[in-house]
Design a protein that fits this description.
The protein has 348 residues and is α+β, with helices and mostly antiparallel strands. Among the domains are: 131 residues, no CATH class; 68 residues, no CATH class. Strands 1-5-2-4-3 form a 5-stranded antiparallel sheet. Helix 7 packs across helix 8, helix 8 crosses helix 9 and helix 10 runs antiparallel to helix 11. The longest helix is centred in the middle third of the chain and has 36 residues. The radius of gyration is 27 Å and the shape is elongated. The relative contact order is 0.13. Bound molecules: zinc ion. Zinc ion binds next to helix 11.
């Protein structure tokens, strides 16, 4: 059995054994490296406040008349632009829908970029007969007779939903008037209320995301501590013997669920390294073309890929994953200090 991330999950898996009433044994394979790797991964979804702010400014267009409008965010490009995993984007959008204030209403994900060609009727006369076509002509980019447009934008202009517009296009296609292709899968939503204070909303969301993150890390540490105790520290007195640590694990697990925080038995995660700052400095100097955030630097040092810093490119740097044993937050702080010096001014 792997060292599992969540104790509840572990108990669930242990529970599978012995259901037939026969005696069964659970073997826990324990490995430091696995722990470091998993602990690093807990940090793969975090987002900085300024990125959340940038994200929210794009979710809510600047003009105040955007209430009721349908907007979209193309998944792949947004994920890269904000360096946020697609799941995280969806999490934040869901929070905007289900939080204290309902800022938006999420619609089904759909392709939003339409590339359209005209066939039978001359374009201008078709536009006179079909209002959708008139709007499309106004809102599209024409390249060699191929019209490219954003479906929600045209739908907003017409006062219909993207689905209604798609149905109209489909009818025209059946009549042989047009052919079209849809691309760019996007999150779609209708704006219900534009937040008055984007900065404080960004702060709230960032705080919430970071609580989720530290909660995951704490669970990971608790699980690791229990395993570490059983393997290395148990005095084999209270019911434990050689490889059987049912008693002490049970005790630690029950404590955990009772809210008793067993102090860390192990201080495996280092809180500093003499070479960290110097390595970050060299890394920044040799990648001066890129604009980093402290989190992006820390991810590279921890060997965590992200949408803007994929493994295929950044995995090649020899700093990749070099500091998995140093606490992520410590690496991030060091990166922040080095970035300040590097940029020469406090950009953060
Ligand atoms: Zn034990």
């Amino acid at each position: 059995m792997d060292i599992l991330i969540v104790k509840a999950q572990k108990i669930e898996e242990i529970g599978r054994a012995g259901r037939d009433g026969r005696l069964s044994y659970c073997h826990l394979f324990y490995d430091d490296e696995m722990y470091f790797k998993l602990r690093s991964l807990m940090y793969s979804e975090g987002v900085d406040e300024y990125a959340v702010n940038k994200f929210l400014s794009e979710v809510f267009p600047a003009d105040k008349s955007s209430c009721g409008k349908i907007c979209s965010l193309i998944k792949e490009s947004a994920s890269r632009r904000f360096d946020m995993k697609e799941e995280v984007i969806l999490t934040v959008l869901t929070r905007l829908e289900l939080g204290d204030v309902q800022y938006l209403h999420l619609l089904p994900q759909t392709n939003v970029t339409c590339v359209l060609n005209f066939y039978k009727t001359p374009t201008v006369s078709l536009a006179q007969k079909v209002s959708a076509i008139a709007v499309i002509l106004k809102r599209s980019e024409n390249r060699h007779g191929q019209h490219t447009f954003d479906l929600p934008t045209v739908a907003n202009d017409m006062g219909v939903t993207p689905v209604e517009l798609t149905n109209q296009l489909y009818d025209l296609k059946l009549k042989g008037e047009i052919t079209y292709e849809m691309k760019d899968m996007a999150y779609c939503y209708r704006i219900l209320e534009v937040p008055t204070d984007l900065l404080s909303l960004s702060a709230d969301i960032t705080k919430w995301l970071s609580e989720v993150e530290s909660c995951k890390v704490r669970k990971m540490d608790a699980m690791f501590n229990a395993a570490y105790f059983a393997v290395n520290l148990c005095d084999k007195m209270n019911g434990c013997s050689s490889a059987d640590h049912t008693s002490c694990l049970q005790r630690i697990i029950l404590d955990y669920f009772a809210g008793i925080d067993n102090i860390d038995f192990c201080k495996k995660i280092d809180q500093s390294s003499p070479f960290l700052r110097a390595d970050i400095k060299v890394f920044l100097q040799s990648n001066s073309h890129a604009r980093f955030t402290p989190r992006a630097v820390a991810r590279v040092m921890h060997g965590i890929a992200s949408p803007a810093y994929p493994y295929t490119i950044w995995g090649k740097t020899h700093f990749w994953g070099r500091y998995t044993k140093i606490d992520f937050k410590v690496v991030m702080e060091a990166a922040k200090e080095e970035l300040k010096k590097f940029v020469g001014k406090d950009i953060l």
